[in-house]
């Protein structure tokens, strides 16, 4: 009996000590970390494995009652399905067989076969082989092409065939891609500047007409001279562009598909080519990193299911930076006023309640507010005052980067206010009184003593704001984000940073590719890869802010007391 009572007493003492709750919290944190790491690994594996140059198989396939056919493609997935599910698609298994294995094959050649992917049933597959001569051709349109190289042509005449044809093809493809880069530079930079200049001349003429300046006067003549100079320059560039297009369209290749048909593909439509079956492990790693770099640095193609996502990366980072620049001063000033200057009473308590409630408002509500207030009201007013010549075409009266950043700044400002107030409340009163006793004014005490010591708390609020803003999608769909932006917000045309332009965003890109893509199988790995990249960008931005915060903490260690 005494032993039982002693055990109960020791258990009660153990519970009262708080150790069980410490272990419980530690276990919950550990489980959360494992789940987060597991989720990141799942996203990384499913996304990054997409860029590996997988071997391309060639096989014979014959369903019962159907003619035999030869298929070429990459093995994407493999699964076990019940007979009833196969029966829905018209596939009948042998009597007594309840399950069957089937393989998802990426056959490519969508412009000839109709689909990129095809499910095939394993029992009817035979003679699987991996010929080294099969090529994987990445095209600007219609996705990948798989087949055998027959010959290389120049303006319709065969210039190489047989064993030396592939090297000739690779060399000519490098020339074609270099010409494409020159064409893009010419169209985007040189011709883009000319088009911008012509638009400015048109708007200046419109302003003169609105100011009732008579036509034929000196201002009009000067504008006509400038217009003529730009048109002459444009004509020269058009000739140069025509020569480049003619040179790029010079070469073609003849390729044989799995069904034996031979088709001609212009090199102007090809981005890259490789033979995965003949590659060693080091060559595959080189090709893998090349694909990853293209994904990070390239522009999207094929309804965002091919190519890269650099415009989305740029738009996300630019929006977060502008949002951070806008939200920090507003949040800090509001927190300083509420904590240091405002007389504490019912009104201030009501304001704090409102600030806390703002943090819980659904983000889509902020999007509606941003569209109505920033875009239509403020942006429309700016157009009426400063851009009358462009009306009815809006400049700032339409969704753009500035309004998206402001909307997210309003969305995240409660976080910055609360974090800054917490930092200000942790600063000992003795420090303020000591500064005032030494002759400093309240403003000097605030600016030179209090705010620097509260800077780590401000950075904490900014970190939380960045983490939330970078992942928001719903409000951005109303105030600036688009599926495909024709130009970046930064270019070589004054004023160089165009805050009125629409932009791409990684979060919206994930939504668009995952739920709006017409090619679901091709889009799925890109959803994982883009999601993983978005998480990495948020981590990098947060680590940069955390590094600044830690340095500030080291400078003002007294704030920890």
Question: What's the short story on this structure?
Answer:
59% of the residues lie in helices and 14% in strands. The protein is built from 16 helices and 13 strands. Helix 8 runs antiparallel to helix 13.
Number of helices: 16
Strand content: 5-15%
* Average of pLDDT: 86
3D shape: flat
Rg result: 32 Å
User: What is the succession of H and E elements?
Assistant: HHEEHEHEEEEEHHEEEHEEHHHHHHHHH
Structural class by sheet pairing and helices: alpha+beta
Largest sheet: 6 strands, antiparallel
Instruction: Indicate the percent of residues in helices.
Output: 55-70%
Number of strands: 13
User: Which segments are poorly predicted (pLDDT under 50) over 5 or more consecutive residues?
Assistant: none
Explain what this protein looks like in three dimensions.
The strands form 3 sheets. Strands 6, 7, 8, 9, 10 and 11 form a 6-stranded antiparallel β-sheet that branches. The model has no long low-confidence stretch (mean pLDDT 86). The radius of gyration is 32 Å and the shape is flat. The protein is built from 16 helices and 13 strands. The protein is an alpha+beta fold. Helix 8 crosses helix 11 and helix 8 runs antiparallel to helix 13.
């Amino acid at each position: 009996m005494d032993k039982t009572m002693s055990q109960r007493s020791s258990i009660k003492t153990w519970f009262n000590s708080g150790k069980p709750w410490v272990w419980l919290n530690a276990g919950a944190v550990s489980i959360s970390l494992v789940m987060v790491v597991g989720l990141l690994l799942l996203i990384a594996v499913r996304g990054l494995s997409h860029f590996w140059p997988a071997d391309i198989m060639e096989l014979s396939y014959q369903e019962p009652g159907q003619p035999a056919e030869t298929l070429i493609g990459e093995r994407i997935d493999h699964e076990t399905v019940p007979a009833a599910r196969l029966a829905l698609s018209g596939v009948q298994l042998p009597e007594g067989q309840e399950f069957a294995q089937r393989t998802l094959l990426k056959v490519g050649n969508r412009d000839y076969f109709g689909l990129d992917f095809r499910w095939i049933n394993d029992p009817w597959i035979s003679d699987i082989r991996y010929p080294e001569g099969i090529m994987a051709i990445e095209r600007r349109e219609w996705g990948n092409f798989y087949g055998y190289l027959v010959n290389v042509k120049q303006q319709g005449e065969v210039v190489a065939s047989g064993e030396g044809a592939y090297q000739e093809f690779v060399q000519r493809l490098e020339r074609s891609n270099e010409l494409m880069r020159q064409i893009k530079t010419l169209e985007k930079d040189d011709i883009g500047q000319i088009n911008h200049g012509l638009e400015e001349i048109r708007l200046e003429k419109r302003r003169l007409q609105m100011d009732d300046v008579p036509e034929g006067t000196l201002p009009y003549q000067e504008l006509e001279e400038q217009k003529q100079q730009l048109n002459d320059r444009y004509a020269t560039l058009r000739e140069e562009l025509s020569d480049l297009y003619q040179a790029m369209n010079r070469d073609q290749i003849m390729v044989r598909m799995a069904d034996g048909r031979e088709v001609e593909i212009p090199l102007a439509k090809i981005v890259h080519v490789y033979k995965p079956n003949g590659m060693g492990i080091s060559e595959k790693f080189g090709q893998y990193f090349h694909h990853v770099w293209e994904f990070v640095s390239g522009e999207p193609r094929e309804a965002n299911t091919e190519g890269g996502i650099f415009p989305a990366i740029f738009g996300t980072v630019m929006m977060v930076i502008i949002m951070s620049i806008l939200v920090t001063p507003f949040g800090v000033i509001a927190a300083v006023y509420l904590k240091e200057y405002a007389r504490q009473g019912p009104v201030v308590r009501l304001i704090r309640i409102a600030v806390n409630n703002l943090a819980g408002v659904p983000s889509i509500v902020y999007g509606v507010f941003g569209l109505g207030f920033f875009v239509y009201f403020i942006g429309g007013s700016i157009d009426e005052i400063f851009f009358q010549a462009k009306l009815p075409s809006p400049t700032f009266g339409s969704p753009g980067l500035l309004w998206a950043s402001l909307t997210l700044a309003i969305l995240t400002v409660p976080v910055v206010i609360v974090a800054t107030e917490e930092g200000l409340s942790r600063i000992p009163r003795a420090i303020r009184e000591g500064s005032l006793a030494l002759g400093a004014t309240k403003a000097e005490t605030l600016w030179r003593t209090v705010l620097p010591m509260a800077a780590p708390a401000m950075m904490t609020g900014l970190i939380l704001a960045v983490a939330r803003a970078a992942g928001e999608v719903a409000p951005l769909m109303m105030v600036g984000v688009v599926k495909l932006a024709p130009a970046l917000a930064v270019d070589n045309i004054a004023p160089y940073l165009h805050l009125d332009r629409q932009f791409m965003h990684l979060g919206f890109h994930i939504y668009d590719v995952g739920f709006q893509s017409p090619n679901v199988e091709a889009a799925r790995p890109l959803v994982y890869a883009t999601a993983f990249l978005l998480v990495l960008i948020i981590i990098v931005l947060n680590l940069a802010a955390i590094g600044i915060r830690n340095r500030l903490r080291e400078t003002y260690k007294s704030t920890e007391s």
